[in-house]
Structure formats: C-alpha cells, structure tokens
Amino acid sequence: MNRLVIVANRVPNPRERGATAGGLAVALRDALARREALWFGWSGQTAETTEIEPREFRVGRITYATLDLGREDYRRYYQGFSNASLWPTLHYRLGLVQFSRDDLAGYRRVNAAFAEALAPLLRPDDTIWAHDFHLFPFGAELRRLGCRQRIGFFLHVPFPPAALFWALPQAEALLADLAAYDVIGVQSEDDAINLRGALAAIGKEEAVSRVAAFPIGIEAESFTALAEKAMVKRETERFQQSLVGRSLIIGVDRLDYTKGLPQRFCGFGQLLARFPEHRSKVTYLQVAPVSRGDVAQYRALRRELDEWAGRINGQYAEPDWMPLRYMTRAVARPVLAGFMRLARIGLVTPLRDGMNLVAKEYVAAQDPEDPGVLVLSRFAGAVAQLPGALLVNPLDPDEIAEALDQALTMPREDRRARWEECVVSVRRDGAQAWCHDFLSRLEGANDA
User: Fold this and answer.
1) Which InterPro entries does the record match to this protein (predicted)?
2) Which of these is catalytic: 132, 191, 353, 429?
C-alpha cells in the first residue's frame, strides 16, 4: 500500500494518546495504523523566520515533519487571514470579518512555503490528504512545483452559500485554488451544494464533480468503553456526589463565538425563570477551554460569559446549590466521557458547525438502559445523522429552555427510543468509515 501523506496546519504531538490527542489525530488513527505515513505541517512554535527545511522524526510507521513559522508569518497567516477572515466567513459571520491584503499575502506565503518544504520529501506514488481552511491554496502550490500525486482536501468547517462567500475579498482566487485538488470533501450535503454552486459560478465545472460530502465520525465503541470505565474513577465519583442527586446538563465546547455559548447560557436562565419546578433540581456544567485567548473578540466573549454565569448564579443560587458551573480550562477526555455518561442532557447549540463531534460523543457515552437526551442546534452538521435529538434554533433562548424542560421531564421509554435512533448512525458512520470513504474516492480518482 502506498504511503499516506497528511498535511495539516498543526502536527500533533505523537506522545499524546486517546486521552489528550486532538480530534484529527483521533479520527485518522485507523488509517495511520494500516500503512506507512508522513504527517507534515506547523510545529506550533514560532521563530524569527519560517523554516525552509522541516525537522523529521519517526514514531512507529509514521514520520513527522514540522516547520517553525516566522513570527510575522504566524501573525499574518494564522491569526490574520485564517482566523480573522476565513473562519468567520465560513461560519456565516460576516460582521466579524477583518481583512487585510497583507494578511492574505502572508497566508499565501505560508502555503507556498509548506509546499516547497514538502515537495522534496514526496514519493511519486504518495497519496496526499490536506486538511482544513488553512490550506485552501496548498494543492495549487504543489501543482505549480510539478507534483502530480493524488491530492485530496477536506474542509472540517462549514462552507457558506456562494453569495455569502463572495463577500470575502479575493474569494474567487481561493476557489480557483481549490480546483487543484482531485477530491474536495466537506462535512454535509448542504456544504457540498454551497461549494459546488460557488465553483460553478467561476466556471470550474470540472471541479464541481469532485466535491462530495464525507461526514466525519468518532470511534464510538472506544468512547463508550472510556465512559464506562470512567464511572468507577475517583473524579467521576466525586463529581456525582457533588450533584446530590440533581439532574446534570453538560456542554463541552472550545471558547469560540461560533458555539452559541451566550445564547445557551441565556436559554438555561430562561429554563429557571419559566420552569421554576427545576430550580434546585438541575445543575448545568459548561466546559469551555480558552481558545485564541490573544484575540480581542475571544477575550470579549469570555467576559460576556463570565457576566452571564454571575447573573444566573446570583439570581438563582441557593446556599447548597450552584445552578451553573462554568470552567475555562481543559478537562481530560476520559473524565469528560464519564461526565457525559452522568448527564441527563447533552446541550450542543452552535450557531453554525461543520459537524460537531461532541454531539456524537455524548450519544456514545450514554447508558443504554437509562440514556440522556441530546439537545442539538439545527445548524450543526451532525443533525442529519442524529434523528433522535431535540432540535433547537440556538438564537431563540426560549426554544432552548422549552427543549431542556422537555428533556428533563421525558419518560425513560421515550429517552431510550430517541437514543436508539441516534446511536445507530454514530456506530455505523465512524472515523474508520470516514477515512475509508474519502481515501477510496481519492485513490480511485485517477483510475477511470
């Protein structure tokens, strides 16, 4: 089997295992275990200038090749165009877009540097798989260097309707770059329709046929086992004791404005205001590790959530009951799995999300005999695969409150029926199936 080359903005630490490894590393674990692989990208470190030659080291069958980014390139490519321009555009948030041509130039400069550093490491029969919005131009840069290997691209975040994407300056050139890839994968059929429309609008009809939806999944059985084992761990037992028999609502998200956290806090506040019978009987735990804490918008979001938490707890807390527990530090994956299994409700309400694997993890973590209920934003890509979830519009706090009340009062038989509707696809359409489907399409792309 030929070598698989994974290219991503950030190369994972190979010493991190299932408990702490990033989502992409977990999703690709099966594919990487079956063949020789090279994982290439940014080291996560900065230097005076971007390195030209990558540092290589090998762990098992995987070779890791990393570059340090120059501080100016980091600011322009990562903080600037990737996160201040592309991220809000792709998440339908034009009002938050901050564009500068210098940032775009830095974005393109880093993509070209990545291609120039990777090209000498490639073998003629390699299969190359680039990941996410940081690397729109990467395939085109490899083609300019004469690389003829099969190159696939997967976008982990949403792709908006063409009319919205055109609002991003020089959007047409970015779309033209995408046409260099042999397969262009997105999370949902809605995203595929949007991207095909955008490509067709600039005359890239051939590329339209290369766009397809490949919904990413999780290792469901492994996560279920993790949750089951966590139930006898000290952290889970302590947490369960602290609830004193109260129902638990859990949310797990990066601290990001796309996740709908202020609206979610407001919805929980509305639950306590409109359905007073739940006061002192339910606790909401929100885990939201700080993300991009050096960006002003994220610092403002954190202040807003601090204010919401203080307002809700100040209004409704009792001497022996804190309604909202809010954490901005990371919690280890096995511990979270146990907390999810304890929770009567998984609350997942992004304003827009490519997929949202937390929703699938919550389903996988449940006790089949007494499962909880998933309350899910209708704007998450996972909606199509989780038919038993209670769907809400995250912009309507009252709708969130009503769904929480419905979930808290739902009989066990109804909860089991809804969970069974969800768990079938979570188990069937897992990470292994996602890797297999994408790579089968990519490695057969030029066989016709």
Assistant:
1) Glyco_trans_20
2) 353
Residue-range domain boundaries for the chain: 4-216+431-443, 220-427
CA torsion angle for 290, 291, 292, 298 (degrees, to 10)? -70
User: Considering the domain 4-216+431-443, what is its CATH architecture?
Assistant: 3-Layer(aba) Sandwich (3.40)
pTM: 0.94
Kindly list the distances between the CA atom of residue 419 and the CA atoms of 92, 219, 246, 360, 405, in Å, as whole numbers in the listed order.
30, 17, 21, 11, 17
Pick the catalytic residue: 131, 156, 278, 429? Answer: 156
How would you classify the pairing of strands 55-59 and 62-70? Answer: antiparallel
Tens of pLDDT, residue by residue over 26-81, are 788 877 888 999 999 999 999 999 998 999 999 989 999 999 999 999 999 999 99
Fold assignment, 220-427: Rossmann fold (3.40.50)
Q: Any idea how long the chain is? A: 448
- Is 398 one of the catalytic residues? no
Render pLDDT for 122-160 as a digit per residue (tens, 0 to 9).
Answer: 999 999 999 999 999 999 999 999 999 999 999 999 999
